[in-house]
């Protein structure tokens, strides 16, 4: 489960920012996760509470904003929404798609004290 490793990396980033920005507690963490990022959101939610124990984000509320996967369809010449990386174009059924969005995973906001 690589979500635990992702949570560990989030913790490291938050702890670094706590030292740099001089805050002692995180009340809320907002993550933006794309549909094509390969992150299992429920596993990340579970791992978050476990990994954050004992740090500045212990007990922090986790909000996740999920973004759609998007791709440019070459035959249609339009951007379409896709649920998975190898889905066909919902308009024409073509597989000639170039992914343009939905692969991101980033810390969007921290609410700190």
Automatic annotation (TrEMBL):
Record organism: Nitrospirillum iridis
Protein name: Hydrogenase maturation factor HypA
GO biological process, one term: protein maturation
Residue numbers binding Ni(2+): 2
Domain of life the protein comes from: Bacteria
Gene3D superfamilies reported for this sequence: 3.30.2320.80
Similarity-based family: Belongs to the HypA/HybF family.
MF (Gene Ontology): metallochaperone activity; nickel cation binding; zinc ion binding
Pfam families xref list: HypA
Keywords: Metal-binding, Nickel, Zinc
UniProt gene name: hypA
Summary of the function given for this chain in its UniProt record: Involved in the maturation of [NiFe] hydrogenases. Required for nickel insertion into the metal center of the hydrogenase.
UniProt binding sites for Zn(2+): 73, 76, 89, 92
